[in-house]
Amino acid sequence: MIKDIFNLKGEGVLIKGWVDTVREHGKIIFLEIRDITGTVQTLSTAQDKNFDTLKKVSKEYCVEIKGKVSARPKGTENKNSPAGSVEIKIDEFKILNKCLPLPFDLENPNTNEEVRLKYRYLDLRRPQMQRNLILRSKVIKIIRDFLFKEGFNEFETPILAKSTPEGARDYVVPSRTQPGKFFALPQSPQLFKQLLMVAGFEKYFQIAKCMRDEDLRSDRQPEFTQLDIEMSFVEQKEIIDLTEQLLKKIWKDFLGINIKIPFQKITYEDSVKKYKTDRPDLRKDKNNLKEFAFCWIVDFPAFEYSTENKRFVASHHPFTKPEMNSFNKDHKTAKSLAYDIVLNGVEIGGGSIRIHEEEIQSKVFEFLGINKKEQREKFGFLLDALKFGAPPHGGIALGLDRLIQIIAGADSIREVIAFPKNKEAKDLMIDTPNSLSIKQLKDIHIKLDLPKKK
Ligand code: ASP
């Protein structure tokens, strides 16, 4: 790898990578070659056998070079590259693949985002994007290491699933084998992780893909990643402690910052009264990008009245346990055992203690206007499971894309996602969503009824 070349002075090496820059000075050509570990200068002079081939090479050709490493002349070193103190005199040169003229200048940070998304594989060659995605990979590794050390197991849950109400529209998948039936893509692994607790695993996590068909606000994705956690036999405090420890570790490892824990806890009521929002930005200087003000919002109202649906809806989700004293007094004004974590005015996660008793779950459904028949149809499996010795449990989910965006200091979550969709929920590179053939539609028993073109 290129980063290892700096201490191989005098030796012959073989490198493979991309042509980062080409500089031709009459009788000498310099190619800066890049691989995932860095760049190194290579050169060839007019007498060399490869000189004419080299003259045809341009940026982003994929090449293989054999040559001898020597120290670069004093004063010409490149301090920004691990191999910047050496150069390679080209002996053998092979083009592994040519490259068309680039559709945009990879060095121009102001390239139109639509163009970047269409040629994402080129955009991702840019050092900034490589840094962001490698950072993402490292953050995920730290999270995994931390949670495994704490005794968690990582499990996958189905993508072809059933609608769970997280408050957004579902993406659905038609069934071919059961005409007229549909799967829903998970808005979160919520019920599966609860069932893993019923199964006795006690500590679960997953780096989970969640799909929500929402009208896209500027910085949302129809599919996003969350760190999903669930634990048995815990109270709110233990989940909050664990989350704080994890965030403390991430901030220390990646930003070198010692964040102070425990974070401030503010009740929903106080937050709304004092800051007019349940996502307060507690930074002293709101423009300071280096300041990180975390807080928890607790004691949410369990339910809110939806004028659209003309009924109460859960403010977190319907599996959240109400605070029982207040629930028994009056369902309408009950508080819930839910908590949100807010950083600089942005909600980065949330969770709750769950209902683990069938009777209470059923009561909550009832209050939310879900009658017995519908409860059976939609949530029969959950209500059944709660009757088989379900343990008390609770959990949390942290929005991983947002978290990594903040750590990377990036302007949008799209900068830390390899293949994001644009603001119309389209993937411009693979060009989706797209149409199906008549045969495919027939297979899944679908007839289209499209809106008239205006
Ligand atoms: N399932 C919730 C969400 O995705 C988080 C949780 O309650 O753990 O927002």
Taking pLDDT < 50 over at least 5 consecutive residues as the criterion, the unreliable ranges are none
The number of helical runs is 12
Could you state the order of secondary-structure elements as H and E? EEEHEEHHHEEEHEEHEHEEEHEEHHEHH
CA(first)-CA(last) distance: 56 Å
**Tell me, what's the shape?**
elongated
- Helix/strand-derived category reads alpha+beta
Quick one: how many beta strands? 17
Mean pLDDT: 95
Looking across the biggest beta sheet, what order are the strands in? 6-9-10-17-16-15-12-11
Bound compounds, please?
Answer: aspartic acid
Report the C-alpha radius of gyration, rounded: 28 Å
Report the sheet with the most strands, covering strand number, pairing sense and barrel closure.
8 strands, mixed
Q: Helical percent range?
A: 25-40%
Beta strand %: 25-35%
Describe this structure in words.
The chain is α+β, with helices and mostly antiparallel strands and 454 residues long. It has 12 helices and 17 strands. It has helices at residues 51-55, 113-118, 120-123, 127-149, 190-198, 236-255, 268-275, 324-329, 358-367, 372-386, 400-408, 438-443, and strands at residues 12-25, 28-35, 38-45, 62-71, 86-97, 153-154, 172-174, 182-184, 203-211, 223-232, 264-267, 294-298, 303-306, 311-314, 338-343, 346-353, 393-399. The protein has an 8-stranded mixed β-sheet, sandwiched between helices. Strand 13 (303-306) and strand 14 form a beta hairpin. The longest helix has 23 residues, at 127-149. It starts with 11 loop residues before the first strand and ends in an 11-residue tail after the last helix. Aspartic acid binds at residues 166, 188, 190, 350-352, 395-397.
